[in-house]
Amino acid sequence: MSDCAGVGAADESDDEWWSAPITSTASAEPMVPAAGSVACTDTRASTEKGDKPTTQPKPELSSAAWETLIETARRGVLAPFHRQAADELARVDQISIAKDLDVAVHAVGRSGRAGARAETAAEIVVQACWTRNSEHADGWANSPGWRMSYVVGQTVVALCKARVGDQSAAIQRLDLAIITGGPSSELRELITMLAPPSTALAAAQRQLSIKPPQNLPSYPSALSVQRVNYVADTPAAERKATFYDSCFSGQNCGVIHGLQVGWTAAAVWGDIVALTESHGHRWVPIEVGTWPNLEERLVTVRQFFEEYFRPDIDTPATPAYLAQHNLFEQVPELQGHVSTPQWINDVGGSLLEQSVWWGTSGTRTPLHYDTHDNFLAQVVGYKYVRLYAASQTPHLYAGTPRVGGGGVARYKTGVNMSQIGDVETASLDDFPNLALAEFSDVVLGPGDTLYMPAGTWHYVRSLTPSMSVNFWF
Q1: Quick check: 295 and 287 in contact, CB under 8 A?
Q2: Are strands 383-388 and 457-462 parallel, antiparallel or unpaired?
Q3: Which of 124, 136, 138, 134 is nearest to 96 (CA)?
Q4: Are the C-beta atoms of residues 403 and 234 closer than 8 Å to each other?
Q5: Burial of 66 from C-beta contacts in 10 A (0-12 / 13-18 / 19+)
Q6: What is the model's pTM?
Q7: Which of 153, 252, 385, 429 could form a disulfide with 125 if both were Cys (CB 3.0 to 4.6 A apart)?
Q8: Do the beta carbons of residue 55 and residue 197 sit within 8 Å?
């Protein structure tokens, strides 16, 4: 985790992310429903307020289009995963769920009662898989059959929805399959067949206008963070030496200027009207609230921008965060607006993962460290970041839960998480050693990129609406 409202490091807590129920703003029901329980037919993403996005799901499929869709699904998802998933379920004595999975896969595409049985059986599988993930401490980690069955079940439901013209619900189910670890390229192919992405982007006059915050955080005891310039056309050896000598060799944090030169993300992401027109029908997971009181929801990109991330909402009543999400994997059209920092290759590293962070002002990331080096690129808006070197760990209450009144653990954290959480409001009565910890801090603005070595403790607060992307290497 680099900049996240309450989940653990990306390489350590993928399953924890899915251990809590996620709800859609279209209903208060679980994100992954039993038959009929979630508002999968919610059409606000394309019809609300009378302004329709450029990209809209197609009407009911023609016979030819349907045959192409289902054949593509069978080839890319159902055939590769169905048999293996059913065998895994049978291996752990889930014979009934395995049979439902068989019914769903074999009946999908048929007409009449057989087709209806496919959707019903698939919904049973989806609900059973989600219940297993939610109610067991290891989630799906030690039982890959559950995850595969979930992906297959959601794909079958999506096909059934598409067959009757409910393309919004079909796309929702396919996005869920991607988000939870399904084969992204194959699932994206199905989504494109239902709603091809628009390549038309609006003019720059609709750019977000985010002014620098007036009252910046000020802590006199904070140390400064060094500033480093990146010049792309510098000879490779000289370019490497700049980063290696100033930051990498000594594992020192640094704010880098020039690393985003050539990116189009600021212009494209900053035009949220265009983003809505292009990708408003896609479904994404967001966190609503402030850590540790978070509710996870599934919303469309359109809903996220209209209900939370609007230019006229300076201080939302409730912060909302599309946090630590690999949106590029889900919507690869957005990948082209950023570039992997060349310095990763210069020092012999390789990109491990990248995440997008879009959020309102007021989002907070509790104090934690990452197990990999990290570039955090601030694209739109402003963030406050507080940094503690790994040497300060003895003062930062890492690791084990802190026991409160009645012996109840107040926080349950991994070894890379601090029990302190919000270092700006923490009580020294509760955490007296925090006063001994040296820290540096910085306000990141558009175009700034922060390098943080592995093991650097950091806390992050959005001062304005904010869009960032990070690169672990």
Answers
A1: yes
A2: antiparallel
A3: 124
A4: no
A5: middle
A6: 0.81
A7: 153
A8: yes
